[in-house]
Amino acid sequence: MTQIMDTAEALFAEEGYNGVTFNRLAEVAGVDASLLRYYFGDKEQLFQAVFRRRGPELNQARLKSMAAYRESAGKNLQLEGVLDALVRPGFLLMAQDEGWRNYMAIVAYVNSSRGPMHALFAETFHYVSREFIADLRRIYPNVTEEEIYWSYLFMTGALTFSISGTKRIDALSNGLVSTSDTMGVFHRFPIAMAGAIRALCERPEAVRPPRTRKSRRANTARD
Amino acid sequence: MTQIMDTAEALFAEEGYNGVTFNRLAEVAGVDASLLRYYFGDKEQLFQAVFRRRGPELNQARLKSMAAYRESAGKNLQLEGVLDALVRPGFLLMAQDEGWRNYMAIVAYVNSSRGPMHALFAETFHYVSREFIADLRRIYPNVTEEEIYWSYLFMTGALTFSISGTKRIDALSNGLVSTSDTMGVFHRFPIAMAGAIRALCERPEAVRPPRTRKSRRANTARD
DNA sequence: GTCTATACGGCGATAGAC
DNA sequence: GTCTATCGCCGTATAGAC
Fold first, then answer.
1. Coil, strand or helix: which one is B143?
2. Is the pLDDT of residue B222 over 50?
3. Nearest-CA distance from A56 to chain B in Å?
4. Which one, of A102, A82, A83, A86, lies nearest residue A94 by Cα?
5. By the 8 A CB rule, do B158 and B192 touch?
6. Contacts of B60 (CB under 8 A, 6+ apart)
7. What is the pLDDT of residue B214?
8. Are residues A7 and A116 in the same domain?
9. For B207, which DSSP code?
């Protein structure tokens, strides 16, 4: 059962949802296709089962990690800290377990797809995204909502690509740098993305007009 | 002919390579499947034709834009400038043309995929990537190769996700921010990614030991 | 629970009429 | 160049024997 899902996970990670057939899935897993059906239903249900299997564990770890950082930082939240807290659990799991690497590739696949898989992704990940966005707001209470979401866009794009398991950078750099160097990615990700978010949110244009009554926010470029 | 490729482009952008069948492609394009074969060969050849159609135009525009920026900046290259020069042509094309938006989604799809499509992507885009990386080296001559490639990884990830045409941010932000606001993405992308690259490359650990013959390499991280 | 047999449709691909 | 006819295969899915 676990073995079947591991196999499905690996295949979906490698070839995407449409790249694998139900029968081949059964064949590679070494079970009869009918048996696979008996357990999981049709192909879509199997995919959903794979997608959902590790989601709660990852989310709980992330929420716990983020809460712990908030606790330790008190009023003094740092970008690097909230970013590290967000991605640490995932990268640590990826670093030690191939199943997790495959799972992350599937998450990246779904996140990069259009269409009906949106719902599946949202169901699992939107809550954590909102928690992270709430942290950004705490760090930048005077920055517009828009700029917070733009920041999130670039952050999540870089993250998605980093966990997708493509070997693009390996090829470009002739193996000097590889996304399979999970800890190398993990170490740099919060640094880079903190820089990106800072650059976006600390522009004068990113600041919203104060909602307080006595508007002292004069001379900014755009109010 | 052009019309056929536009249709194929739109379908591949929406559903990915494996999400579309050759017959449906013909049906939606309003031509007989045999005719489609007569023109393009099999499905893979059609996909390649679509992928290659706009590549040279985009690349030439990028190389020109990058050369123009180098020219204007002289010895004083800025991160924002090289980033802007790199992505400007693509975003401008996307902003005015749906075909280009579809094409970019396909590029993002291929870039996010594992497997044999690597070659197709590399053939078209590696050259420009190397040009961009060369610019990064000019800006940071003392930064390690590794750090340059890590910078490129996060940059290209954010870019890939930004052009992929998913509506994830639209959903998260309840429509406040949308990746279909091409100019909004374009405007912020160089700012954000310059911040990211700066954060990575201006750490002391990112600096490499000097390569001069009188190697004083000793104990300093910074030279 | 597990495997066999089988239905049916759609897929990619070819031959050939016009 | 364009369309019809048709092939064999593989896809998902079901019924039912053991």
1. strand
2. no
3. 19
4. A102
5. yes
6. none
7. 59
8. no
9. B
Q: How far is the CA of A171 from the C1' of C12 (A)?
A: 33
Closest Cα partner for B186 from B100, B72, B67? Answer: B100
Q: Diameter of chain B by CA atoms?
A: 71
- Measure, in angstroms, how far nucleotide C11 C1' is from residue A15 CA: 19
Size of interface A-B (CB pairs under 8 A): 197
**Residue of B114, B171, B188 lying closest to A200 (CB–CB):** B188
Residue B218 reports pLDDT greater than 50? no
A13-61 per-position pLDDT tens digit? 999 999 999 999 999 999 999 999 999 999 999 999 999 999 999 999 9
DSSP string, A179-205: TT-HHHHHHHHHHHHHHHHHHHHTSGG
Report the half-sphere exposure of A196 (CA within 13 A, side-chain side): 32
Tell whether A149 is within 8 A of chain B (Cβ).
yes
Q: Are residues A36 and A128 in the same domain?
A: no
Give the integer Cα–Cα distance in Å for A63 and B69. Answer: 44
Given a cut of 50, whether residue A218 has pLDDT beyond it is: no
Closest C-alpha to A16, from A106, A114, A122: A106
| B80 and B179 assigned to the same domain | yes
Name the pLDDT band for B212 (thresholds 50, 70, 90): low
Based on the structure, what is the number of domains in chain B? 2
Look at residue B12 in the predicted model and tell me its pLDDT: 97
Q: Among A76-85, A161-170, A171-180, B214-223, name the one with the lowest average pLDDT.
A: B214-223
Mean pLDDT, rounded, for B158-186 = 97
Distance, first Cα to last Cα, chain B: 59
Considering the domain boundaries, does residue B222 fall inside one? no
Q: What is the arithmetic mean of pLDDT over B156-167? A: 97
pTM for the whole structure:
0.94
- CATH assignment at residue A44: 1.10.10.60
Domain of residue B198 covers 54-206
What CA–CA distances, in Å, run from B14 to A184, B19, B101, B181?
A: 33, 8, 11, 18
